[in-house]
Write a structure and sequence with these properties.
The structure holds two protein chains of two kinds. Helices cover 6% and strands 32% of the residues of chain A. Chain A is mainly beta. In chain A, strands 1, 2, 3, 4, 7, 10 and 12 form a seven-stranded antiparallel sheet that branches. In chain A, strands 14, 15, 16, 17, 19, 21 and 24 form a seven-stranded antiparallel sheet that branches. Chain A has a four-stranded antiparallel sheet with strand order 5-11-8-9, with no helix packed on it. In chain B, strands 3-2-5-6 form a four-stranded antiparallel sheet, with no helix packed on it. A three-stranded mixed sheet of chain B has the order 4-1-7, with no helix packed on it. Classes of the chains: A mainly beta, B alpha+beta.
Chain lengths: 499, 135
Amino acid sequence: MKKIFLIAISAILINTGLVAQAILNGESNNIEEYNYLCWQLPKAVKNLENKNLIIAGKYSFESANLNTNNLTDVFLKSPWLTNGQGNVKLTARLNGSGAKTRGIVFSYAFFDADSKNEDFTTNFTTFYEYSFLNMNSTNTALISASLPSTIKSTNQPYKIRISFVGTEGEGSIVFDNVEISGNYASDPSNSCYPAKTNEENDKEDDDKDKVANKYDAYPKDATKAYNNFYPEKENGTLMFEDLWPSVGDYDFNDLVVGYRFNTVTDAENNIVEINFEITPKAIGASYNNGFGFMLNGISSDKIYSVTGLKTEAKWLNLAKNGTESDQKTATIIVFTSANDILPNPGGSSGVNVDPKATYVKPTPISFTVKFKDEEGKTPNGDISMKEFSPDNFNPFIIINQERGNELHLPGYIPSEKANTKLFGTADDNSKEGNYYKTKNNLPWALNIPAEIPYAVEKTDFVKAYVYFAEWAQSNGENYSDWSGDNEKYRNYDALYIAK
Amino acid sequence: MKNTKSITVTAILIGVISMASCKKGVELQKPLPVDSTAPTSFKEIKVNPTFKWKNAKVISLNIMAANPEIQISNTLLVKLENGSVILTKLHKMNEAYVTNISIPLKANNVIVSYGSIVKTIAISNNSATVNFFKN
């Protein structure tokens, strides 16, 4: 009876402890999928679904019409295997008429990195030949042969080639349930070459963290492996209206902040640290605002340290690890006074919102939120990469030095320091689970994961970005690229372009 | 009379050709259509009550496990079609992995590369499912 496995692919390996073998049956009905698993089934072998000829299950295999005894015309090759101790077997039957001879030949080859043969094999050596005796019989034969002792006595990777041969007539060989003794040793992620040994892997991995140097962003540091930047290529842009809970002039430039962060992970895919770069870019407000963010889903005690920030204010208390104290969710205050970070050059109100006024070059604030100490230990357990996505980044402003007066992106949760009495006052319609929106579902803040120019002072945002309103009113269906950098989408006269 | 007819026909032909040429030119210059009812100020925007104002979408990335016998570890890279890398992780081929990734609104595919295996995966219902051994 054909073996049926839960896995969707039917060319698999089983290892019961005593018996390890590669199995190939036809149930996938897609030759390409067998090839993904490192079986080699050239075009001369195809899936067969003729019910009268199937040996087992819904599909079997069929060779091409056989008119040669050449072993390399119609064949299949196994993946690389090691430590085989048992047999090679398959079931087969003839199909067609007029054949003079039909047969199946088993050969083996070892891996040879210096070989000029296809897929780095030594020359194949035949170890078993089977001949069909009655050319008119369509009975199914079980064909089986023990692996040669040269394979059994070594742990070198080997391949088995099964060739289908014959002369004269019009006919093929139908076969199924190929079983080859051995441990699967191919690497589908490395063009099906033999899986590297630990020794070979170590040669390409200086810090021995199991991440090969070519992929390791920190090849000499076993505590770190990968960088994950967001946004990947440029700063994102946060734009705030700071008259919350009342609506303002909707120029979305009361505070404009650039952001980018790099989540550094180790070989276990746990977060080691997140390196932030926050850039206050413009102030179009009379209020002096602060800026911070929560890491939603990450509790404060999971943070080992926050380094690189020099935040001070009467209203700010920091815990020993550098997060804001008395917050269950990790909360980091990046700057407390936008006016100190981006000072007014004089001559106009605001900073970098009036194209005629002096441009103040913003200075990025770089800092690191560490989740592990120098030895790679975590204070209260690891945070997996799975637990943090850019959506967990919850930035907010602290309006005019009033700690409780915090304003977040629409829909994002407030921190424990937020003055909840402000919810539902003036134009705000915040409700449990749906914060920082008006009754008409309008926001006070926008987050664009790209570096885009913002509106000049007192210019309504919809005048700056021609298709923004249409994007919003279509529920995000139309013009999802509304911020695109072209003159049909942007009204450059209404945008502040940094000089 | 015959000459007059010829001149008239020629004139019409020239006119039609030149109009067609002008039309082509006009179309090239034509701006994208703007809804005449489009709001002229932010306050006038009317949105669905469930609209989230997000400029990125979070999708579920599901990597299906291979057979347990295939004990391969390699670096998994998830990219956008413009080459931007969204996720990098060490991945064991015989383990399933599910995570959320944030991608641009307009992205319809992600490209998953795992050593020599490279697959373009269509995003459907905010989800992308990767089976290394299936088309």
